[in-house]
Specification:
The protein is mainly alpha-helical and 129 residues long. The chain has one domain. It has helices spanning 3-8, 11-34, 48-56, 92-127. The radius of gyration is 19 Å and the shape is elongated.
Amino acid sequence: MSFTDKLFGQTLNIGAQALNLRMAKQGLIQSNIANIETPGYNQQDFSFSDAMRSAMQDQGQLARTNSKHIPLDPMDISENISFSGEKRPVDLDEEMLNLSQNQLMYRVTAKIIAKQFDGLKYAINEGGR
């Protein structure tokens, strides 16, 4: 168990994974919007909840067969994302809605993480008085 796990439990790890997934989804949405005029381009998407569940269960992680092997970064969860197989053209209104929802959820997650640090800061400052 790491030092941060002792202080914050799994909140920071879960939050960091959620932020990474939100960034990946943001890039995907931006790609959809950028390719809206590309002939034959189909909308790309993935289920955030499925990808988060997969990341939390450590699916897709490689086993270390030797103690000298360098472990993979647990935050690199892009390998755990499975894209939807639905083939349909990009709808700009839908993508703009997805973009705003994703940005909002990113901000909420970042605020939750910041509050964890605010609590630690408060404990440190009050402990010095």
